Signal peptidase I
Amino acid sequence: MEWLKAIVIAVVLVLVIRWLFFAPFIVDGPSMQPNFHTGERIIVNKIIYDIRQPKHGEVIVFHVPTEGRDFIKRVIGVPGDTVKVEGDTITVNGQVVDETYIKEAVNAKHKNNELYNTEADFPNERVSDGTVPEGYVFVLGDNRSNSTDSRSIGYVPFGDIVGRADLVFWPLQELHFIKH
């Protein structure tokens, strides 16, 4: 009977921890390649943004009500930042962003005289103001030419953020903490 009690307590603890602190997320689609791939399982830290605001370069999971699902993207701009995307150059507050996480992919395209970002620049006809409002973030997918991100869906409200992606746990050979 003691073992049954221990199992029930363990299950309750797991459910409470999962509900309050962490959530699993499955990557779906190519928008975060080369860093994240379809089918990878990620642990999302749900409480970090109750303590502080998102920071530049962090990978977040957020709800997109118009799409009816969650997205995973990288934070490029935080409240008050002025963001500009022109081809493969991203500037925040007039400073070029050093995107080490996609540098190899960008350089490979440039060697072939191609742009890595063949999609929309920013600001654009959908989002005309490049200054991130209070309570929002500007996000981009790492795969700029195949990503639905702030260039098309606009700024992401803090209230729609599920949390920060902290750990890839599946497949096991890809197990690692996510660098931010």
